[in-house]
Amino acid sequence: MLSLMGDEIVAVRELPVRKVRRYATAAFVLLALMTATKCSFASSPYSWATYYAPRRTATITIDGDLSEWDSVKGFTMDQEKFFFVGQGMSSKKWTGPKDLSATFKVVWDDQYIYVAVHVVDDKVNEPFGSLVSGMDTGSWDDDGVELMFDNDGSNMARYYIGDPLHHEFHFVYSATHPLVFDNFWKYQAGAPQPMFTLPDGKKEPLAYPDEVMAKNEITQSFAGPPYYGKFAFKRTPDGYNLEVRMALPGAQMKPIYDGGHAIGFDVAINDNDEGKGPLKQQLHWSGMNDLYWRDCKFFGTLILYDSVSGASTTSSTAK
Ligand SMILES: [Ca+2]
Ligand SMILES: [Ca+2]
Ligand SMILES: [Ca+2]
């Protein structure tokens, strides 16, 4: 940045004073923008981990049929670089896009964020881990989709059960009784750092010290405050769809250029092909192979925008 400023100064030395001022102002604005970007956006260093969500132009019916999303540009994860590396997982067992890949899309209106995910998965299983009491297995072992939201773009770490602004949601696939979980950790002073034990006995951090895990299923309450949520899965010939609508308390549901702000956002796709045991593999959009389920700074970034042609649809009602 300093060299940029230096170059600007050298380059404008022979220019009239007015142009010098203009260059200096432009350089200052650029510097201010870069600084602001660093402070308020999530921290994935990967260029792909920013999604620009248009205001919706069609009525979205939450039924798992994604035909009304056809005109929305999706982001597809179908390469090795999207696989989470940790907890014994990587792309090592991956046999290709038919084994696991996914495309997600996001739109918004004044009330809600809407997310559509088409998951390609060759073996779609009913949940098992989510239904077991105890912490040895859970929704994190079942076929399904994780959605992370840092509603107010805080970049904060250590969010807990009951926090309406910062989230790790798990949407667990089932043909008959799909499930939703919302955040998995409670603060407990003095609790030892939770560790994940790998098959070879090695341990990896699972959370921070002073934290304990809990299964926080919210399938029934998801439709009520603060989310007013609705979700639906639909089995497809190559996998399944997930369609979700929910409110994001603390988020400005406005275009970025009109008082809006960056929202921390992440998507992970869980794949278990055995119907038992630990997860086989996981796609993870932001690419941050760290404690992304504990720390919003490891999320990607969601930017809301509105096209001029879409402005007339702002008052339409969500279904
Ligand atoms: Ca639909
Ligand atoms: Ca699979
Ligand atoms: Ca599977």
The helix/strand series, from N terminus to C terminus, equals HHEEEEEEEEEEEEEEEE
> Could you please say which CATH topology of the largest domain applies here?
Immunoglobulin-like
Write out the distinct hetero groups bound to the structure: calcium ion
Helix content class: 10-25%
User: What gross morphology would you assign?
Assistant: globular
Ends: how far apart? Answer: 48 Å
Secondary-structure-based class equals mainly beta
CATH-scheme architecture of the largest domain: Sandwich
> Total number of helical segments?
2
Unreliably modeled segments? 1-20, 25-39, 310-319
Domain count, please report it: 2
Mean pLDDT: 87
* Structure summary, number of beta strands: 16
From the alpha carbons, calculate the radius of gyration and give it in angstroms.
Answer: 21 Å
**Into which percentage range does the β-strand content fall?**
25-35%
Quick one: biggest sheet? 7 strands, mixed
Please characterize this protein's 3D structure.
The chain has 319 residues and is mainly β. It has 2 domains: 1-40; 43-313, Immunoglobulin-like (Sandwich), CATH 2.60.40.1190. It contains 2 helices and 16 strands. Strands 1, 5, 6, 7, 14, 15 and 16 form a 7-stranded mixed beta sheet that branches. A hairpin with a 2-residue loop joins β12 (230-236) and β13 (239-246). α1 (2-12) packs antiparallel against α2 (17-40). Residues 121, 123-125, 143, 271-273 line the site of one calcium ion.
